[in-house]
Design brief:
Layout lengths: L1 H27 L3 H14 L4 H13 L3 H14 L4 H13 L3 H15 L3 H13 L3 H14 L4 H14 L1 E12 L4 E14 L2 E12 L3 E14 L2 E9 L9 E11 L2 E12 L2 E14 L3 E14 L5 E16 L2 E9 L18 E11 L3 E11 L5 E13 L1
Antiparallel strand pairs: 1-2, 1-14, 2-3, 3-4, 4-5, 5-6, 6-7, 7-8, 8-9, 9-10, 10-11, 11-12, 12-13, 13-14
Helix pairs in contact: 1-2, 2-3, 3-4, 3-5, 4-5, 5-6, 5-7, 6-7, 7-8, 8-9
Length: 399
């Protein structure tokens, strides 16, 4: 009997770590349901196994069962108030369901006991981002990145926060050729300077050359973080003597973030020589977990010809799908009918051209907060003409 008991004990000792290792390997490989099944078997054998309970809670978070995960983390914290991993997990679950104030409080209580813990810093950073405090989020992302510089979740969170909160310089340029022999080149330089944690000042200058003219447009505005999940922008630009670009361009926009969706809209008024345009554009974007993103915009525009007093209405729509191919490379494809871009609207695109545009671009996000996006687009017009355009955008962010 003694030898049999010893053999059973040895079997448990040698089998349990193997099963646990298998579950952890499956979890790290993304085979979540299989890992949960094994951890549940371990828990059936030993209901007091805290490690298995924490793993199940983490994996429930992964598959969207936030309430189950929160309940599991809370149960561990009740039994083991000093368990750092359980408290970090609870903070992450609370952030996921929008209770960031409670999450921040719990995580700060845990900070002294956790020491230099990258998971704690990263979870605090995400909680502050959800709370709309990008400055604190950036601080904690930097602390987490210093400890785990190769952790992609930390690195991408840091870069995304820096790009929203920091100063930036943007260059946009294109070269365009038309089937009717009309060519154009344009370049613009923008600066976004953080004047206060919730306020950026925007300045932009643009030069466009066509076969018979060169136009200049300059102006600026403000971008205000009006609330935790809402931004408001107001801008004005102009250029005297322009023949292709507007002489006056004024617009306002608002974007509200709710979960994975961005809902917003803009109103824009443009004055050209002999023509005035006003456009209203509701927008909807869907960010599907950072891997794919869908942007859409509908616009109703009204054009008035000041010489004759005539006016006409026009409709346009734009849909863009973006797919992350690798960590730092995104591919985007765009379809547009009507006026595809009111930011780049020129006099030759006014009116019901019945234009159809397709575009393909690649976005490269470099490690030093630089984003480079080359794009090719082709546009067919109802007057039997077509244009091809090659665009290059470079964005450099500074903390």
């Amino acid at each position: 009997m003694v030898s049999l008991a010893a053999a059973l004990a040895l079997t448990i000792v040698f089998q349990s770590p193997t099963e646990r290792d298998q579950a952890e390997d499956l979890a790290r490989a993304g085979r979540t349901q299989e890992a949960i099944a094994i951890y549940r078997r371990i828990l059936e054998q030993n209901p007091a196994d805290t490690d298995a309970r924490l793993w199940i809670a983490r994996l429930n978070m992964r598959i969207g069962k936030t309430e189950d995960a929160e309940a599991a983390f809370r149960s561990v914290v009740r039994e083991h108030p000093g368990d750092v991993d359980a408290r970090i997990g609870l903070g992450a679950a609370l952030t996921r369901r929008g209770a960031w104030d409670e999450a921040i409080a719990i995580l700060h209580e845990t900070e002294p006991a956790a020491g230099q813990n990258a998971d704690l810093f990263g979870t605090l950073a995400r909680a502050y981002r959800r709370a709309g405090d990008d400055r604190s989020a950036l601080e904690y992302f930097e602390r987490a990145r210093a400890l785990t510089p190769t952790d992609w979740d930390i690195v991408s969170g840091y870069e995304a926060t820096a790009q929203v909160y920091g100063h930036s310089i943007v260059f946009d340029g294109f070269t365009e050729s038309g089937s009717t022999g009309t060519d154009a080149q344009s370049g613009s330089l923008s600066m976004l300077v953080r004047a206060a944690p919730q306020l950026h000042i925007h300045a932009r200058g643009r030069v466009q050359r066509r076969t018979e003219s060169t136009d200049v447009l300059g102006g600026g505005g403000v971008l205000w973080r009006a609330g935790r999940a809402t931004t408001v922008g107001l801008y004005i630009a102009g250029g005297s003597g322009n023949t292709s670009l507007p002489t006056t361009d004024m617009w306002g926009e608002v974007v509200h973030y709710t979960g994975a969706f961005e809902v917003g809209g803009s109103i824009r008024g443009l004055s050209f020589v002999g023509t005035e345009v006003i456009a209203a554009s509701p927008t909807l974007s869907w960010d599907r977990g950072g891997r794919t993103r869908l942007d859409s915009r509908y616009t109703y525009s009204r054009t008035r010809f000041t010489g004759t007093g005539d006016s006409s209405g026009d409709h346009s729509v734009m849909v863009r799908d973006t797919l992350r191919l690798w960590r730092r490379v995104w591919l985007n494809a765009t379809y547009a009918y009507g006026i595809e871009s009111f930011e780049e609207l020129s006099a030759d695109r006014i009116g019901s051209l019945g234009a159809t545009t397709v575009a393909v671009g690649v976005r490269f996000a470099l490690p030093w907060l630089t984003v480079i996006t080359p794009t090719w687009e082709h546009q067919w017009r109802s007057n039997d003409s077509a244009i091809d355009r090659l665009t290059l955008s470079v964005v450099q962010t500074f903390k």
